[in-house]
Design brief:
Shape: globular
Largest sheet: 7 strands, mixed
Mean pLDDT: 94
Bound molecules: pyridoxal-5'-phosphate
Helix content: 25-40%
Strand order of the largest sheet: 1-10-9-8-6-2-3
Length: about 475
């Protein structure tokens, strides 16, 4: 299989054809320099640590600017090339309106909580949501009504969210402001969003889908269907995770026919965002959308899927290696490969891959490791990975140092004693981990990855939590009156 080099394959003329207005405006600004008496004060890298400049390159610093200047447009309100770029992204993803996010999908989730929920309202949300969604609810004062997805016990991960569970919860609760689900899971398990969206429409409750890990789906039929096509009202995408943009850059889409107040979302985004957005990050969102739409970008994604399939076929032939895949009763995204090897914890496998083979994976749990098949990976990367895993599976590696009683994927149904927000703002005290058993948590404990909550403010701390808290000596709890 021939490797694709993105930069080489995406010819300038092709990029121009698909058009990337922020990229063009930035190029124009760099070709027509002005005397700069504005932020950022390093002034094109002239006043910056030399080694840093050498490391990242003068050009990057030259282009490091914010909105308002050099005809680059503004983010809030969206004007000029930034507005144009958001409109092009909206067309590409099939939304009514798209907002560019800095501070990642976290910013999108905060805005959803802030704009679309209210104090006292209930929000039906999956327990394995990202902590940013909960921060959104802490801002508004809405209360989560937890949905626990199915459990895939032998992999120690959450499975899919059941539409019937959502319907039952909607029937059992009034004053539900929002149904908010995560799809896919970090490990690539896909829920039936179509059925969930049907239920939401029946009860006239908006559906928000945190599709942080699924931003490529709209660009290849072999990937699952994006929630924007399945009836969600709002969708959040971490373009920087798998879409090819730079770290921290994401998008929030308001769907066509959405029943949410898009203006409220826009206002919340304005308040939550930096007032000095990085043009480099914005340009990278513009560029990644242009690539995904371009012919070579589509070819690149097709090859990525082919490479993922190649990797999976190779892994299928390693006797003591197992991979999570569609066909085990779940739909999965082929590009997210979660594997385990008999006799090795995921953490041990991760360290063998890193130390003995120079391979870094996306994440590891006590059970397995998560491999992302990315647009930028070459076929030879996958071959090397498969060869290495074959060698590891044949070698008698021991697991000794990783047999500690530590768990990574929080899968505990919470015991809620106080409201999320009340507990977060309550008087607090710090107690030792041992003394915290039986007390009410006053902090969010949700380590990344995967950013899924172990404990939230207002929840009872029990012995069950201990295997997840190895890195904590003390915890913040609500002060006894
Ligand atoms: C499901 C989900 N939503 C949101 C986020 C936050 O994304 P970002 O890192 O882009 O802020 C993450 C991060 O891992 C996530 O896994």
């Amino acid at each position: 299989m021939k490797d694709i080099k993105l930069i080489d394959n995406t010819s300038e003329s092709e990029l121009l054809k698909v058009s990337a207005p922020i990229v063009e405006a930035l190029r124009n600004a760099s070709e027509n320099p002005t005397y700069q008496f504005h932020i950022p004060g390093h002034t094109k890298g002239r006043a910056i640590y030399k080694d840093f400049k050498k490391l990242i390159g003068e050009k990057v610093l030259n282009l490091d600017t914010t909105d308002e200047f050099d005809n680059l447009g503004t983010l809030h309100p969206a004007t000029g090339p930034i507005k144009e770029a958001q409109e092009l992204a909206s067309q590409a993803f099939g939304s009514e309106k798209t907002f560019f996010l800095l501070n990642g999908s976290t910013a999108g989730n905060l805005a959803v909580g802030m704009a679309l929920t209210k104090a006292g309202q209930k929000v039906i949300i999956n327990r394995n949501c990202h902590r940013s969604a909960l921060t959104g609810l802490m801002i508004s004062g809405a209360e989560p009504i937890w949905i626990c997805p199915s459990r895939i016990e032998d992999w120690s991960i959450w499975g899919s969210i059941n539409a019937e569970d959502i319907e039952k919860t909607l029937q059992a609760n009034d004053n539900v402001g929002l149904v908010w689900i995560t799809n896919p899971t970090y490990e690539g398990v896909v829920s039936d969003v179509k059925s969930i969206s049907k239920v939401c429409k029946k009860y006239n409750v908006p559906l928000v889908v945190d599709e942080a890990h699924g931003c490529l789906w709209n660009f290849n039929r072999k990937l699952p269907e994006t929630a924007l096509k399945l009836g969600a009202d709002v969708v959040v995408h971490s373009l920087h995770k798998t879409g090819g943009s730079m770290s921290q850059s994401s998008m929030l889409h308001i769907a066509k026919d959405s029943i949410v107040d898009a203006d409220a979302v826009e206002k919340a985004l304005k308040l939550l965002h930096t007032t000095s957005p990085s043009l480099l990050l914005l340009a990278s969102l513009d560029a990644s959308r242009a690539v995904l739409q371009s012919k070579s970008g589509q070819a690149l994604l097709a090859r990525t899927i082919k490479n993922a399939k190649y990797l999976r076929e190779r892994l299928d032939n390693i006797p003591n290696l197992h991979q999570l895949k569609t066909g085990f009763g779940y739909m999965t995204d082929v590009t997210k490969v979660f594997i385990k090897i008999d006799g090795l914890s995921g953490k041990r496998l991760e360290s063998i891959l890193e130390i003995d083979f120079g391979i870094e994976v996306e994440s590891a749990s006590d059970i397995g490791v998560l491999i992302l098949c990315n647009l930028g990976n070459k076929h030879s990367d996958f071959k090397y990975l498969a060869d290495s895993l074959e060698k590891i599976a044949k070698t008698n590696y021991t697991d000794i140092c990783y047999l500690e009683n530590r768990k990574h994927m929080p899968m505990i149904a919470p015991k809620i004693i106080m409201s999320l927000r009340d507990a977060y703002y309550a008087d607090k005290e710090i107690v030792s981990k041992e003394q915290s058993i039986g007390r009410i948590s006053a902090e969010v404990i949700a380590e990344c990855p995967p950013g899924i909550s172990i404990l939230l403010p207002g929840e009872l701390i029990t012995e069950e939590h201990l295997p997840y808290l190895n890195d904590y000596n003390s915890l913040e709890v609500v002060k006894n009156k």
